[in-house]
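ARCHIVE CARD
Drawer: 12
Card no.: 0347
Subject: one protein chain, sequence and derived structure
Cross-reference: see card 0346
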Amino acid sequence: MMRIQKMQQVTKGSFLRNCKKDILIADLSIDSRKIMNPDSTLFIAINGEQRSGLQFVKDAYLKGVRNFIVGEKIDLSFFEEEVNIIWVKDPVTALQRIGIYIRHQYDYPVVAITGSNGKTVVKEWLSKILSGSEPYNLDGGVVKSPKSYNSQIGVPLSVWNMQADNTIGIFEAGISKVGEMARLEKILTPDIGIFTNIEICLQCAFCLG
């Protein structure tokens, strides 16, 4: 969890509108269709391949969300009620900064799993073993990536779920472009790294040097 004023500082953004209420943010959302707790949700307007993230801000607002991160200027006249709107240069980078901040609040071990395939299987396998074995057999002891959240967006969303009563974190890390793993490493700063199967073509090996 993080209060909205702290969120503005962590993301290095600036308020386009600030209702002066230091709301406690419990949920992050990038999908206006999946908002569960609008009063405590921060909606991050991330652009898709064909649509601007701003197109979904109004949908989220109509569903009760009052806290937003945007990467483009927005028509503030649409909002009839008090809202918090933080402007940043890049919403994905802002989300990753949130992930980095949350990760550094906890000192229990973090395991990062990467590879061409098998990441989710290994994560679930490890989680099941550690959840029932000493010293990690406390209720809620293991925090892990939901589903296959291993992208530049998925990893910080996964790390957001870290809490003080966890004893170990197990997260997937996947990449599609050169340089992406360095960004994920800054978010996870893992204590243990696990490589599953790695596949690379000769052409890629040549390009990567």
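Annotation on reverse: The chain has a mean pLDDT of 90. The longest helix spans residues 91-103.
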